[in-house]
Amino acid sequence: MTFKDLNIIPSIMEGLNKANYTNPTPIQEQAIPAVLAGRDLLGCAQTGTGKTAAFSVPIIQLLSERSKGPKSARHIRSLILTPTRELAIQIADNIKVYSRYTDIRCTAIVGGVSQKVQERALNQGADIIIATPGRLNDLINQKRIDLKMVEILVLDEADRMLDMGFIHDVKRIIAKMPNKKQTLFFSATMPPEITKMVKTLLVDPVKVEITPVSSTVDRIEQSIYLLENGKKQQMLNQILEDKSIVTALVFTRTKRGADRVTRDLAKVNVTAQAIHGNKSQNERQRALNNFKSGATRVLVATDIAARGIDVEELSHVINFNLPNIPETYVHRIGRTGRAGKSGMAISFCEKDELPFLRDIEKVIKKTIPEVKGHPYPMTGVPVFEKTNKAPGGKPAFNKSSAGKPAKSKANPARKPKSEWFAKSGKTTSSRSNDARSNGSRSHSSSSKPNNGSFSRSSKTRNDRAN
Questions:
Q1: 173-187 average pLDDT score
Q2: Helical packing angle, 115-124 and 133-141, nearest 10°
Q3: pLDDT confidence of 399, banded at 50, 70, 90?
């Protein structure tokens, strides 16, 4: 099937041809006809499936066919809501490519950059706005944006908006629009709150489900390094000595962690830039452009900031920290292996991250192969991977815990106080006497609590390990 078979108008076809789009992806094949027919749509799809073109191409066509009035009388007729600035800008860039030979105008409304520039774009007129909820709400409250003429609403990555706490903002925005409109709803997962929204917003929707979570990663070569604590940076430095890794996207759990990894890579002459929420929009966009152009070899990102990063030929994704949500792992490694291409995903795992690894493997329904023979192996087998009880009812410990056994027995009884100075008649220093006397008092006055205290501390350590 080709885009021409989907009844795309010539002006859009010209833009698609210029962008080297030839054959639609599965989600485009299913979604475009439904949207062109005016139906509401519920799309369950991961990133990298061609989702943006699946909703933006038919929107451009519908608005082009319904265009009315002079250019100066433009109103916002389609709103696309996204969770992050990067994703909004990426979608806006794509729409400009698809619509370059039409009369449709679009603009991105995001935080982190000057509002004045966006106000000027709105004053010039925009048919489609792609926005993040925070900045859009600001402009609505300032009466700078009117959504009363919106005909088509798109909620992209709705589950991520829920994760980021934007759902109430989204509901306030929707309340400013006409009740009668076409709604296109995309979400990689369907938690209860999202399911509830779908039932409220969509009317008899066409459902399109592409690439379940467990199979998204099938074409990506995955590996895991089980590392001793504190050795991740050394391992990353060593991996990046391989010059065949031209570009790599490295994920960290925190903004501070992203900055630290970037600094440490610079020390070994690896060009790297960080992208996260504390960076201004201009800094983030500059880092992304440098990465896409090849000026920067490594982009270090947090999960939030990485939404919207779409880099062709990205061969490697490296999880410096494993995510605590398994689906986030799928989102991350989906940055490589795009559009049917293969890719590599490398993950680092310390002992405290092993439960995250176990959850990830349950979701993707496969065991991630471990890389062995590196200089920083994890020592010992984690307690929770063993059985909790050994024969005889005693707790089972591995070799690493046996090396540092927890004291579960009470201290041995000391000599009576009357015998302390009986030996050889020598006088000990007053400091020594005080120390012993204090020790004796604490022991003799609380020998039972001590006994219980040691048992409790041992139990606490076992519980933590488990």
A1: 94
A2: 70
A3: very low
CA angle 142/143/147 to nearest 5° reads 130
Nearest Cα neighbor of 44 from 155, 148, 147 is: 155
Angle, nearest 10°, between helix axes 447-465 and 430-445?
80
Tell me, what's the pLDDT at 187? 86
How distant, in Å, are the alpha carbons of 143, 163, 233, 309 from that of 275?
A: 32, 19, 18, 10
* Tokens, residue 308: 């919207």
1: closest CA among 34, 33, 23, 28?
Answer: 23
Domains of the chain: 3-211 (3.40.50.300), 214-379 (3.40.50.300), 406-465 (no CATH)
Give the model confidence (pLDDT) of 123-152 as tens digits: 989 999 999 999 999 999 999 999 999 999
Q: Which one, of 91, 90, 136, lies nearest residue 110 by Cα?
A: 136
Structure tokens at 245: 């890794």
